[in-house]
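Tokens for chain A. Residues wanted.
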């Protein structure tokens, strides 16, 4: 990790501590509506409900499962509220802004929970874990492929998931620093882009300010229906600069970014709708 990334990492940790201290929110969808609980939201094949859980943390509910990505258990998701769901927890790598061991305690509360690690973590011995190289795993209704990298000198994966008529990519920290494309990054994106005809939801870490070469390359390859920039810590509004540029180059693609945790939307027929 170079010095700039190290400083950024420390800054993020500070933001998280403040965030943890301040949070009182629950995962239940606030704001009313008939389907204001996650267990009450009924989805068809090809549909998804998506919640932003802070930084790189997301929840995606499809017709048969609830997937949680790189979530730090800060009290925002109450495992009791999702204990009746078939839950798949994805952890891309071991950095403190993506993984907290307390997440493993959920298995005491949620009977149908599956953990998927992006590396051969010590904690992963009784769970599913990807290692070096690209492989594929069938986990219940999910087909999961990974790409591997160690850009920060630790083992990491990004995940490509097919489930319930959807193709979803979650990058973790697989990103490209400003400037020329890292050959490993480019090769991984090229490989992933060949794995599906359609990419419904693409969650992408944005590291490439101000020219965003890597991000734009990935969007060009994936041509997703919805692209979601992430890894903003408490600076979510910074996504606007990237999205403005990306929209000008790819006007047919829908970009969505949250302003605060709990922001959410419904994905249906390739479009996004407010989720109340
Ligand atoms: Zn990160």
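Reply:
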């Amino acid at each position: 990790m170079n010095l700039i990334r190290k400083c950024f990492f420390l800054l993020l940790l500070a933001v998280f501590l403040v965030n943890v201290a301040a949070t009182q929110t629950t995962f239940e969808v606030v704001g009313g509506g008939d389907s204001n609980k996650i267990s009450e939201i009924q989805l068809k094949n090809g549909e998804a409900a998506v919640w932003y859980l802070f930084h790189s943390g997301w929840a995606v509910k499809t017709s048969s499962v609830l997937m949680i990505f790189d979530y730090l258990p800060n009290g925002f998701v109450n495992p009791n509220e999702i204990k009746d769901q078939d839950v798949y927890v994805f952890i891309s790598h071991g950095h403190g802004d993506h993984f907290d061991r307390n997440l493993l305690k959920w298995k005491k509360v949620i009977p149908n929970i599956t953990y998927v690690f992006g590396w051969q973590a010590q904690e992963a011995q009784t769970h599913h874990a990807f290692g070096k190289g690209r492989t594929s795993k069938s986990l219940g209704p999910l087909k999961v492929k990974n790409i591997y990298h160690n850009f920060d000198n630790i083992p990491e994966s990004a995940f490509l998931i097919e489930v319930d008529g959807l193709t979803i990519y979650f990058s973790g920290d697989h990103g490209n620093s400003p400037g020329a494309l890292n050959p490993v990054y480019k090769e991984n994106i090229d490989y992933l882009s060949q794995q599906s005809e359609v990419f419904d939801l693409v969650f992408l870490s944005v590291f490439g300010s101000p020219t965003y070469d890597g991000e734009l390359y990935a969007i060009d390859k994936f041509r997703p229906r919805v692209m979601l920039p992430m890894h903003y810590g408490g600076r979510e509004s910074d996504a606007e600069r990237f999205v403005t540029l990306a929209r000008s180059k790819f006007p047919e693609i829908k970009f969505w970014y949250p302003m605060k945790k709990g922001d959410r939307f419904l994905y249906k027929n390739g479009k996004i709708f407010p989720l109340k």
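The radius of gyration is 17 Å. The domain at 3-274 is CATH 3.60.15.10 (Metallo-beta-lactamase; Chain A).
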